[in-house]
Design a protein that fits this description.
about 575 residues, mainly alpha, elongated, disordered C terminus, 6 helices, disordered N terminus
Length: about 575
Amino acid sequence: FIVLIMEPPPAAPREPPPKDGIGPRGLPETYHVNGSRPRFDCPVREICKKAPEFGGEQRRGAINTLKDLKDTQYNDFFIRCDRRSLINNVARRVDLCMASYQEDLKAKRQRLTALLTAEEEKNIRLFVEQAQAGAEAVWQEKKDRLAYLLAKRKKEHEDKYRDVPISKCVHVQPCLVKMRSKESQEGQLYQMKENLAKKMSEIEIEKMWHAVALKEADALAARMEVDAMERLRREQECAKYSKDLIARRKEQKRKEQELLKEESKKLKELFEEYKRKEEADERERQQKKIQAGEERKAAIRERQETLAKQQAEAKLINDTWDSLSFMGIMDEKNKEDLRKKKARELNICNKHIVELKEEKARIMEADDPLFEAEARKIQDAMDQKRCQEMMRAKKINDEARAGVKEQIKENAAARAKETEAHREVVQYQRQLGAQLDQLVRHRDLTEAQARKLFQAQLLQQIQYNKLIKKRQKQEDLDQRKKCMMAADDYQNEITKIMCREFFSDEIHPFLRKMYSGLKMQEKCPCSKPDYCAVPVRGPKLGDMPKTSQQPNPTENRSEDAGNKVVNPTKSSENP
């Protein structure tokens, strides 16, 4: 809505500045007015008093000027309102654009602030990382040094105890005994599981053969059922097709009969119409003949009436003369004159009538050939028209008969085509049935061959699995024999070592423990990961006798065997 704010009316003109007194600069006599004299001496006032008309004109001029000023102000106001509305619209658009620009600027400022914050955080993080890099480098160097020392110690330990055979490790005897018992137990469990798996596999194979036989029986029954359904469906389709073909033939025959009936009906209607036209033409000719006879009768009747009138006039004249014969001589004379006059007029009239009759007879005789020619022309035209109608009807009948014959031929050709198509369909269905039967036989043969091949392959797979199991069992037995032989050799070697005479009082603590009586604890002392890694240091050189200064190879080997890894061929577990 545009609110029109009306401006207040123009203010009254200001009072004129004084002509004398203190001026605007605060100094007197700064106004210079011509003729500044006292009020009572003003000549203008006297002139105004003396001239009221001049004052009225000035007032009217002032009123008109004020009206013009008001009109100008109103026009300026409305123009200013229109301009203001345009300016308001432009300003509103500018405000919207500025608001959108400010929002966009604010979003960009926020995004820039976020980017600067992330960059500042990244810089701070880099600074902190650079500050902490020195301590981390020292710590990393320590860790690397520790890892290097551990790897070096491990490598030295492996190089030291690499060539020591396990048969020289006396302290591993309990572990070997336990490992052998565990291996024998695992062998028995494996054999039991293998026997159970063999029995279960035989049971599963029997179940599988039973399920396969059931599925084959179900598949055979389903296939026979599908074949029966397919045969029934084909028989139903053949019966339906035969019924449809018979129904179509009946419908076609009915349509042909209806078409023949309609054509015969049309021909009959055309013949009846032609017959009606001929009857109408015949009636018209009869009517014309009757009309011509009536005209002749009317002419004869008129002639008879004319003769009757003449006879009546003659009789009237005779009667008149008979009645006047009894009158006087003058009357007779007058009557005689009148009779003569009448006789003359009658003779003239008779002559005129005879001339008219002769002329009429002559005209009639002259018109008879014309009438006959006209009648002959009309009759010829009617005969020609009747011949044309007959020719047209004959042509229509011939065309209709030709169309019926052509349609009969087309129907016969269509029936022959339908018969040929039906014969082809029957032949195609017979061939299709033979091909389907052949395909079914081939499929049955292929499925039987595939089933036999699968059974043969399954038997071969079973025999191969038995052979593999037998070989695996034989290999396990051979491996166990080898293990037993190796264990016997190891036991013999250990026995020999233990029965050997010692040439020194300083013996290994493990052997001393075994001689005093071996009592196994629940947990082996060497089972700890760092126990065997620590080498056992011998006595000091000052405490040892001279005969024991050189190390005993048996002791060294027994000490070195403490950190030796167990033979992986026996077991991978550390007791």
